[in-house]
């Protein structure tokens, strides 16, 4: 295969690895992300233009970065409390302030 093919394969694997870390223990999100990743790659499987493939690789890399750095899991502990589950590779200064509902006094 070409260099580009191995880059695409690497990206595919990285996206799935990131998906498994980001959505750990969330079967629905894991499945939805798995289907989406596979569909995107399948859709563009027959793409032959190196320039277009390069653009797709760029998009995929951006998506992976956003997933890895910006997505944070929340668990509803009761009807109005959300517990955030930070991952150790999630940079805290990267998390935008979120005005989430907190426990009522």
Structure description:
- This protein has 105 residues and is mostly helical.
- 55% of the residues lie in helices and 10% in strands.
- It is built from three helices and two strands.
- The protein has helices at 3-22, 27-43, 50-70, and strands spanning 73-78, 81-85.
- A two-stranded antiparallel sheet has the order 1-2.
- The model has no long low-confidence stretch (mean pLDDT 83).
- This is LYR motif containing 7.
Topology, pairings included?
Layout: H1 3-22, H2 27-43, H3 50-70, E1 73-78, E2 81-85
Antiparallel strand pairs: 1-2
Instruction: Report the total helices.
Output: 3
Strand order of the largest sheet: 1-2
Principal-axis shape equals elongated
Strand content: 5-15%
What does the largest sheet look like? 2 strands, antiparallel
Protein name: LYR motif containing 7
Organism: Ovis aries
Please give a quick description of this structure.
This protein is mostly helical and 105 residues long. 55% of the residues lie in helices and 10% in strands.
